[in-house]
Design brief:
The protein has 450 residues and is an alpha+beta fold. It folds into three domains: 111 residues, Alpha-Beta Plaits; 87 residues, Chitinase A, domain 3, CATH 3.10.50.40; 189 residues, Trigger factor, C-terminal domain (Trigger factor, domain 2, Orthogonal Bundle). Helices cover 46% and strands 18% of the residues. The chain is built from 13 helices and eleven strands. Strands 6, 7, 8, 9 and 10 form a five-stranded antiparallel β-sheet that branches. A four-stranded antiparallel β-sheet has the order 1-2-4-3. A hairpin with a 5-residue loop joins strand 9 and strand 10. Helix 8 crosses helix 10. The radius of gyration is 34 Å and the shape is elongated.
Amino acid sequence: MRATASPGDTNHVKLVVEVDEVEMSDAIDRTASTLAKQVSVKGFRKGKVPKSVLIAHIGGADVLRGEAIRESIPDFYARAVADAAIDPISEPTITVTAGEDHGELVFEADVEIRPEVVISGQGGLRVTLPSPQVTDVEVDAQIDQFRETDATLHDVDRPIVTGDLVTMDVHVTEVGAEGEPFEMNDFMYTVGSGAITSGVDELILGLRAGEDLTVSGTGRSGNDATYVLHLKQIKERVLPELSDEWVVENTEWTSADEMRDALLDQMRRRKVAEARYAQRDAALVALGELVVEGDAPESLVVSETNERLHNLGQRLAEQKLDFETFLQITNQSADSLLATLREDAARAVRIDLALRALVRAEGLEPTEQEIDDEFERTAASMGVAVDVLRANLHDTGRTVAFVAEVAKMKASRWLLDNVTYVDPAGLEIDRGLLRDDETPNDDETSIADA
C-alpha cells in the first residue's frame, strides 16, 4: 500500500491511497471468511461454506469485492494516515477512484488536519496563583478561632463594629405577600454574618443601641421587602488572654509559641499545596489565551464538547443519575450546560494548539530516544509489549498523535519552568516555595497516566 498527501483547502490535505492487488486479494479473503460465518447455505455449516459457493450465494464476485472494499477502507485509511504522518481532526470524505471492479484499489480522502497556529509572548507570561505566603494577620485569625470557643460577652455602650452581637426586634414587610408582616423580637444578630439581608452589615456599623435601621432587601418569598430593625442591646466578644496556661488547658499544645509555630506550619503547607494545585492549570490557561479564539477549528470544539458530554453522562450513570435530575440539582438548563461544556471545550482546544505552537517556537520536538522512552513507559503502564503498542498505534493511525503528546509533555515542563508566578497582589512568588520533593517528576509520568 502507498499513501501520498498533498495540500488541499485551508487545513485540509488530499490523501491518495493505492492498495495493490495482493493486499486487495487478502482483504477479499478476509471478508469471505467473515461472511462464511454469517450466512446460511443449505448443506453447509456456518464457517465451512466454500468460497465459490459463497460468491454464488451472495450474488457474484463483484458483490464480494464491493463488501471487501467497504470493510477494508477504514483500515487502509488509518494505515495511510500513519504512513503519511498527518494529524486528522475529523472524519474524512473518501472517494474510490479506481479498482472497484478489479485490479489495484485507489481512493482519495479529503482530510481536515489540525492547524498550526503561531503564538508570541510565551516567555513573558505572568500567572496569578493563590499566595503561598502566610501572614501574621492570618495566623492571628486562626488563633482567634480557638479563642472564640472560650470567649465571653460584655455589654458595651459604643457604636456598633463588625463582630458585635446585637439584640434587635425585626419587622419585615414583603411587597405583594399575603398575610401579616413577619416579626422577630429579641433576635440576636452577629454583625458581619450576612444572616438578615444584603446591606445590613454595612449600614448597621456606627449605630448605637436604641436606634432604628430600615433596609430594602429580599423577603423569604423572594419578593422585595422592607426590613425595620430596632437595635436594643450591643455586646462584644472578649477573647481570653493568649497565655501558656490557657493554651495548655484548651488545646493540644504546651505553649502559645508552640501553638503559633504549629498553626503557621499547617497553614503554610496548605497554602503551598493550593498554589501548586493551581500552578499547572493556571499556566496552561494563560498559554491558551495566546491563541486567537477564531483559530480553534469548529470541528475540534464540537468533538471536544461531545466527548465532555459523553464523559459526564458516564459519571452520572455511575451515580445512578440522569441528565434531567442533574440539571435540577445544579439549577441549570440543558442550554446553559451545553454552553458551559462548549466554553470549557474551546479553552481546551486553544490550550492544545498553544502547546503544539510552543513546541515549534521553542524547539521542543522530542528526540527519538525520548519517544522510545515514552513508548516503554506507556507500554509498561498498560501491561503490553512495546512492539504491540507501536503496531496498534500505527494500524489505527495514532502514531502522530502519540508523538505529539510526548512533545506536549515537554512543552508543559518548559512552560512551568519559564512563566512568572505572582500572587493576587501582583508580587512575584519564589519558585522555591512551589517545589515539592514528594511530587513525582513529570519525566516519570507516562501518556497513559496523563
